[in-house]
């Protein structure tokens, strides 16, 4: 029979190399990190696509590390639209900015965008890690600061821009990333509209306007930019 402690040990050993590859943990010897995890509270959970990881207003009890998959922070607006604030992938950390706050509840809902695996680290283990290594403490403060600034910038950029500006920002990024006028879409139009925080009909209407103006062509899986001048 496998005890809870043994099950946890097996779980963390499966991912210990991935954890050590993160800057936050890179200064720890492997055996020491395994020991710290074996004597402290944490859990490794798997989530299905679309499953809620944390509800809005839920108390934050852990710092979470995405080991596999994709996680998004979402907010439902007053008119019923889903506003996708940001997406976290393998190695990303969330909850660190809330865990030690006096207002430690999630301001938005956290949802698994795909099959995902998340390491949830409780406060007592975070404190032990900080006491053991000042580099961890410094790295944790950097994570908190960077995430706060990034989320603030994201919220401001989404709330102040028109639908067309949001589309152009997305197209510009994908154009330079894919190095092609024909952009392959790895998400649906519905998912894209959620990322923009608008209704799918609003996205389709603006794309159709841009097509009529000769700026682009599109189908269900691609968007073709007729000229880079679209970004001027």
Largest sheet: 4 strands, antiparallel
- As a percent range, the share of helical residues equals 40-55%
Shape: elongated
Our Rg estimate from Cα atoms comes to: 21 Å
Order of helices and strands: HHEEEEEEHEEHHHEHHEE
Measure the end-to-end span: 65 Å
Number of DSSP strand runs: 11
Give structural notes:
This protein is an alpha+beta fold. Helices cover 45% and strands 23% of the residues. The chain is built from 8 helices and 11 strands. It has a 4-stranded antiparallel β-sheet. Strands 2-7-4-5 form a 4-stranded antiparallel β-sheet. It has a 3-stranded antiparallel β-sheet with strand order 9-11-10. The longest helix has 27 residues. The protein starts with a helix and ends in a 7-residue tail after the last strand. The mean pLDDT is 85.
Topology:
Elements: H1 4-20, H2 30-38, E1 42-47, E2 52-54, E3 62-68, E4 70-76, E5 82-89, E6 93-94, H3 96-99, E7 109-112, E8 116-122, H4 123-132, H5 134-160, H6 163-178, E9 182-184, H7 189-196, H8 200-212, E10 216-218, E11 222-225
Antiparallel strand pairs: 1-8, 2-7, 3-6, 3-8, 4-5, 4-7, 9-11, 10-11
Helix pairs in contact: 1-2, 4-5, 7-8
In a nutshell, what does this entry contain?
The chain is built from eight helices and eleven strands.
